[in-house]
Amino acid sequence: MHVAALWRYPVKSLAGGQLRQAAVTTDGLQGDRLVHVRGPRGPLTGTTRPGLTLPASTSADGVPRGWPATH
């Protein structure tokens, strides 16, 4: 198997970041999709809200900056 690239999306539907290496846990790629954005009518995505596609800033373990570590 050849892996051409690794990408992590810490906040669902926001822009992700390419990784050089990643840890895989029983829950999937560590730090991937830890949170999602939701409005009163349901989930918000980059398709309906282009501003959500801005890069997410994360710490080395993939937790969005300013969020408490829960793993």
What descriptors fit this protein?
71 residues; mainly beta; two-stranded antiparallel ribbon; two-stranded parallel ribbon; 8 strands; 0% helix; 25% strand; elongated
How would you describe what is shown here?
This protein is mainly β. The protein has no helices and 8 strands. The protein is 0% helix and 25% strand. The protein has a two-stranded antiparallel ribbon. The protein has a two-stranded parallel sheet with strand order 2-6. A two-stranded antiparallel sheet has the order 4-5. The protein has a domain at 6-53. The model has no long low-confidence stretch (mean pLDDT 76). It has strands spanning 6-8, 11-12, 17-19, 24-25, 28-29, 35-36, 38-39, 42-43.
Per-chain topology:
Layout: E1 6-8, E2 11-12, E3 17-19, E4 24-25, E5 28-29, E6 35-36, E7 38-39, E8 42-43
Parallel strand pairs: 2-6
Antiparallel strand pairs: 1-3, 4-5, 7-8
Short description:
With 71 residues, this protein is mainly β.
Question: What portion of residues is helical?
Answer: under 10%
Globally, the shape reads elongated
Taking pLDDT < 50 over at least 5 consecutive residues as the criterion, the unreliable ranges are none
Q: What is the H/E string?
A: EEEEEEEE
Overall number of strands: 8
How are the strands of the largest sheet arranged?
1-3
**Which structural category do the helix and sheet elements fall into?**
mainly beta
The largest sheet is: 2 strands, antiparallel
Distance between the termini: 29 Å
Rg is: 13 Å
